[in-house]
Design goal:
With about 170 residues, the chain is mostly beta strands. It is built from no helices and 13 strands. The N and C termini lie far apart (about 60 Å).
Length: about 170
């Protein structure tokens, strides 16, 4: 009997709460350069280990061969924290494409991917004298984990948010 088992993927960390309070003017002059970027991102779960079992039977005696191959489970992902941005009477200006005035996000982590399981059994024997040969393969893939939750995002603006180019939203 040959048995192979993949390891489980690691669990990931939780995104912390984020708070940004802006009290001064901000100007960016590069592409994809937001004025304020506040993100809490939960980590993704790790991938489960994959397995491959192989048995080769070349004997002339009757034999029973079995391969069991089990993939590892995906690791747990993590939630994201709350995000708060306050622009207190200041001006936020972005000048190039793809540059949001304020980019605020809370993004939950993705679930871990399950491990694959596969096996191969080769029987190279031939029997003419009544001897038996029995072979079986059992393969079971691991279990993936579910995605996690994002949290609340709040943006308070008591100032001016100005974007001067394409694909550059204010908030």
């Amino acid at each position: 009997i040959d048995v192979t088992v993949g390891g489980s993927g690691g669990d990931d960390g939780t995104g912390a709460d984020v708070s940004v309070i802006n009290t001064g003017d901000i100007t960016t002059d590069g592409a994809a350069s937001p004025g304020v970027m506040a993100q809490s991102i939960g980590g993704d779960g790790g991938s489960g280990g994959s397995t491959f079992g192989l048995a080769v039977d070349g004997s002339v005696d009757g034999e029973i061969d079995t391969i069991v191959s089990v993939g590892g489970d995906g690791g747990q992902d993590a939630d994201a924290g709350e995000v708060y941005v306050s622009n207190d009477g200041s001006t936020i200006t972005t000048k190039k494409p793809g540059s949001a005035g304020v980019l605020a996000q809370s993004i939950g982590g993705n679930g871990g991917i399950s491990g694959n399981a596969s096996s191969a059994l080769m029987d190279l024997t031939s029997s003419t004298d009544g001897k038996f040969s029995f072979s079986s393969e059992i393969t079971v893939g691991g279990t993936g984990s579910t995605g996690s939750d994002a949290s609340t995002v709040e943006v308070d603006n008591d100032g001016v948010i100005a974007t001067e180019n394409s694909a550059s939203h204010g908030v």
